[in-house]
Amino acid sequence: MTPLTQRQKELITKNVLAACKDIEKLNKTGYDFLYLAQGFIAHYNLGGFKAYYSDGSLQDDIERNARANQWNNFRAGERDAEYYHSKRDCYNMILGGLVANEYSARYA
Question: Does the residue 1 lie in any domain?
């Protein structure tokens, strides 16, 4: 499996952060990343995923599932470890963006 590039991580992060504010902004790339993460289900397709999270709970589920999306069971040098570690890095970039957004909103 091919690890995510830095550019892919940045694009996914940007899209998912936008979707946390407005689920209609979620695109296929962000959806594909999320539904393949632990704690999320596909909800049949992108439209179903958007409908499910139309209540604004996407951020809550991202935060709730953070621990399960660290892929700590993969060690450097093991098969597919780089791929899962790139997914971990991307998930953590999203979490960092959520924290930064909350801080900005609170102290702006």
Answer: no
For every residue of 12-30, DSSP letters joined together read: HHHHHHHHHH-GGG--HHH
Q: Report the pLDDT value the prediction gives residue 102, as an integer from 0 to 100.
A: 65
pLDDT in tens, 44-88: 899 999 999 999 999 999 999 999 999 999 999 999 999 999 999
Please count the structural domains in the chain: 1
* CA max distance for the chain: 45
Burial of 44 (0-12, 13-18, 19+ CB in 10 A): exposed
- What does the alpha-carbon distance between residue 19 and residue 6 come to, in Å, rounded to a whole number? 20
The DSSP element (H or E) to which 95 belongs, if any, is helix 81-107
Range of the structural domain that residue 13 is part of: 6-107
pTM of the predicted model as reported, rounded to 2 decimal places = 0.91
